[in-house]
Amino acid sequence: MKNAGWSTQRVAGQVDRSECAIKNCWEQWTREGTHAWKTETGATKKTTRREDRRIVRQALVDPTVNRSTIGADVGVAIVPQTISRHLAEANLKSKRPFRAFPLTPEHRQLRLQWCHAR
């Protein structure tokens, strides 16, 4: 409609939107060539999708690798929290082997008595 020479007020009345919305949409169209709203908010991403996959792959290949090593291997200056977030998105969490509680000889004796009683 704007290409046809319609005024902003006339376009706004036709599509039932505010003049400000029509003006912003037209400015974006002339500036970027698109009317789509940006879907992502916040800071721009520092890594590409390929680098994201590489972070996850390195953690899968070598579970003992730490965040600083992964960051150095990827070759992008990112903070360790970014690496942790990518691993969490891939359902990878830090895994430490659970060690049994240290039992004193007294604890062992009490457990044994409890077992014999039952």
Automatic annotation (TrEMBL):
One of its GO terms (molecular function) is DNA binding. Pfam families: HTH_Tnp_Tc3_2. InterPro entries: Transposase_Tc1-like (IPR002492). GO terms for biological process: DNA integration; DNA transposition. Residues 52-116 form the Transposase Tc1-like domain. It comes from the Eukaryota. This is HTH_Tnp_Tc3_2 domain-containing protein. The gene is NCL1_13165.
